[in-house]
Amino acid sequence: PIEIYESLDRASDKGPLRPAQMDILTKWYENYKEKTNVIIKLHTGQGKTLIGLLILQSRINEGGGPSLYICPNKYLVEQTIEQAKQFGIKTCKIDKNHDLPDKFWDSDAILVTHVQKVFNGKTIFGLNNNSIEIDSIVLDDSHACIDTIQDSSTIHIPSTSDAYEKILDVFSDYLVDQGFAKLEEIKQGIQGQVMAIPYWAWSDKYQEITKIIIEHKEENFIKFAWELVKDIFDKSSCFISSKHIEITPGFCPIDQFGSYNKANHKVLMSATTNNDAFFIKGLGMDSNTVKNPLVYENEKWSGEKMILMPYQIHDQLNKINIVNWLAQKVHNRKYGIAVLSPSSNSAKYWEDCGASIALPYNIVEHVQNLKSGNRDDVVVFVNRYDGIDLPDNSCRILIIDSRPYAQTLNEKYQEDVRENSDTIDIKVAQKIEQGLGRAVRGEKDYCIIILTGHSLSSTIKNRRFKKFFSEQTQKQIKIGTDISKFAAEDADQSDAIKMLKGIMDLSLNRDEGWKGYYNQQMREINNKPKNWKVLEILELEKKAESEYIKSNYELSRKYYQKIVDTYIKSESEIG
After folding, report:
1. Of 282, 360, 361, residue with least CA distance to 119
2. What are residue 232's phi and psi, to 5 degrees?
3. d(CA 235, CA 321)
4. What's the pLDDT tens digit per position in 7-34?
């Protein structure tokens, strides 16, 4: 791949490969290129896209066959194609008729597409034995893809559908046993409650539910998932809220996507802050692959993050005051301000105070405005903790507003009942870390990150969650806490906003004392040995679920029993 890069007709501003890229590509070629599965872990901004494209081109040049580069969302497809063009790498994309181009079939170019296009029940790549053969796949931002793949096999039935009422009626007696008041709240449209259908109730009634689903199977909320779940429908789980019903397989059907599952070479891209244990169940990886990723060992961190929790500086710096101060429109603002909000309700308050909400139809326009210099508006992104890149002046102030919410009824229910689960805690910590990385996209990039909302502050402080943040994030949080204490001692206590602004100016004005202190503290990071407990639990869960799908209940039970006997102490988690 390094020789390929040297031979490319690339744009004049595209210089030599970076040290991290050289290191990763050399290691891949010498030690990893014959492996079926490879995980590449790199800091943000180290050029993962180019690494992935060069790996695929190398496979093509050796006669491997069709190659596929999968982006985590459709917004990044054009960006990846444009980047490849600047480097002189040939790519192609699926046409308007949803046909795969000849250049892809003939291995003349790398096909760039997005995860929703590959992983759905009506995928043009085919399912199971009807899947087309692909030699090599790069899955960019792989953690972001896991949720999309799980969602592709989940049926969401809105409360506006008569199928919702029919299913609710079938299970009404079982749900009354769990709690009459909770069920009534759901029936009356009150949000916030989630009820799970007991597995014995689903076993009794799934055939009735199957008939209801088939009656409505041409509805969009059913047809794209039905092909994936119909053969394992009796093993699915069902959750009910006032807004919709969610039916999801207990086991991610990744093996049905034959183009991915049977590819000769799969490369999964991962950030250094992510716990890759979720690749076991979500992407079909084995534990050996997860434990031995391809990494660049000469760099411990990348970029500068000043992480501030305003409440630590002054008790007047609550969410209301922060929003009222920062949400206002400012003419000719020199740098962008962005907000990551967990829900539309939270985002609405920012909008009421002057900010703009990035909606699905105009999210690309908002990102381009921030990057091009049109930064008058503060832009709020709703539940976008990954897949949005805001480098340099496009975002110098990032506000993470409140703790991320569970996005599926399954996750919401598990958070409610699994109060001491490492698996749940890691997912929450990881979502927060993904948000922290949106605005620092390279070694020399810098950003102030403001954490608001009581729920988020409590999570950050909680030792239970704290241990699941990466070493660099834990150190950055401590640096922010320390710098806040130092500044508060010398500041005018009567003006809370002025105090906060004074601390932020250290970063915005590139204060030499601040930069030196940050670098000195970050150099003290010691990467501790990995704790593989969660990896081992998830591997056993995968085996248990696999046997359950095949109706090998006794063997499935033994795997679950081993988890309980070996790893779990919490009574609620055992339950």
Report:
1. 282
2. -125, 25
3. 49
4. 999 888 888 999 999 999 999 999 999 9
Q: What's 75's DSSP letter?
A: H
Classify burial at 237, counting beta carbons within 10 Å of its beta carbon; exposed 0-12, middle 13-18, buried 19 or more.
middle
Q: Do the Cβ atoms of 135 and 263 come closer than 8 Å?
A: yes
Burial 133-148 (b: 16+ CB within 10 A, else e): ebbbbbbbbbbbbbbb
d(CA 492, CA 134): 64
Locate the DSSP E strands across 359-506: 379-382, 397-401, 446-452
The tens digit of pLDDT for each residue in 289-310 reads 999 999 998 877 888 999 999 9
Cβ–Cβ under 8 Å, residues 446 and 303: yes
Q: Do 278 and 47 touch, CB atoms closer than 8 A?
A: no
Paired with 338 in beta bridges are 379, 398
What is the pTM (predicted TM-score) of this model?
0.90
Give yes or no for a contact between 568 and 541, defined as CB atoms under 8 angstroms apart: no
Give the position of tokens 């710098």.
483
Dist CA 354 CA 357 (whole Å): 10
- The secondary structure of 490-515, three-state, reads HCCCCCHHHHHHHHHHHHHCCCHHHH
